Amino acid sequence: MSNFCFKFSSDASETLTSILEPNVCNKVEWLPAKEILLDDCVHQTTGKKSIFKVNDLVVFYVVSSDENNHVVSIDKYNQSDLIPAKYEGGMKIWECTYDLVNYLSTSDKPINFEKKSVLDLGCGAGYLGLTAFKLGAESIHFQDYNEEVLYQLTIPNLISNIDKENDSSNFKFFTGDWESFVKLNNFQYDIILTSETIYNTQNHRKLHMTLKKKLKKDGIIFLAAKTYYFGVGGGTRQFEALVNEEGVFDSTVCWKCSSGNIKKIKLIFLKKNDSQ
Questions:
Q1: pTM (two decimals)
Q2: Which of 62, 175, 205, 237 could hold 147 in an S-S bridge, CB 3.0 to 4.6 Å?
């Protein structure tokens, strides 16, 4: 198990701010899931681009999408990291996303993405799905709660990394709440990638259900997260307790960083005796 800690700029390690109390989640109306069609979004690809590199892996991303070269944001929520059921933080690149990109790209035991179907769950800018694409995945589906995130970040980032030879039907985009997302279609995946999606304990059961319904029987999940999310109360311990309670998955820690707020990457898979 690797213990290397990736270092990033200070804004990548900010704690959650301006979030409503967790129990508010019981009183709000969550957005229904729907598919966003790539063909309807091609006009969104203009903007200043940059790259990030991990060893030989190069991923392009859009750093602005307007004529003034400002970083895109959902203006009405730009003072908040999270507002339950309104804005779930997709415009920010969260710290553990970089950890998981690094792990997938440099692991001593390389993950086989060739010809695999991948779900980037809670995708934000789509870095995890793009990494899977660069590593050979055949089809990648992206899901984020807010459709603005898909329009302004995820889709422009994808288009910056594909060419005319890539079959656009291999990429799909979904928005909305996980509870309705699992009912939207019957897609299942070889690999599910998700980062910093366990910050709110109110959503743990929905996330667990989504992972169970969307994972193929022989599939694997990589979940990257912090031990504790200040101001929200979620974290790896609470989610691990739910996983143990439900008895559907086995898991192991495949990466850990113990400096500061402990971060982990968990490898999760269905128990051998489980039938979906």
A1: 0.84
A2: 175
